[in-house]
Amino acid sequence: MAIVGIGVDVVDVARFARTLERTPRLRGRLFTDAELLRDGEPRRAESLAARFAAKEALIKALGGSTGVGWHDMVVGADDQRAPSLTLSGGAALLAESRGVTDVHLSLSHDAGVATAFVVAEEVRAP
Q1: pLDDT band at 39 (very low <50, low <70, confident <90, very high)
Q2: 96 carries a ligand binding annotation
Q3: Domain 4'-phosphopantetheinyl transferase spans what residues (predicted)?
Q4: Out of 2, 16, 29, 69, which residue is the most buried by the measure of CB atoms under 10 Å away?
Q5: pTM (2 decimals)?
Q6: How far apart are CA 97 and CA 78, in angstroms?
Q7: 91 neighbors 103 (Cβ within 8 angstroms)
Q8: Is 56 known to sit in a ligand binding site?
């Protein structure tokens, strides 16, 4: 295993919520339908802010965003309900070009701040 990059991002939840209220179409530009809902209900601002932070942290871990669209990075959960990132399109191509084979994500939100931490790694065969 080799770490290719790390990224961290923080988002002021109240400011993010105001931005989403001012620009309603931004939700659809930043997030997929699956990211916008949890169990059929709209996600709260804290959860969306953490997902936005995850996408920003991933961009930092990959060393840039050239060719990457917001929907190329989808924040979901694995089979253990731990947060995960699924890459497609430009994000998958960028990750591949950097040798990234695995991405780890941690999310948190508290006291009006959402945080995401991403580790991009290359897993080498033994």
Answers
A1: confident
A2: no
A3: 5-100
A4: 16
A5: 0.94
A6: 24
A7: no
A8: yes
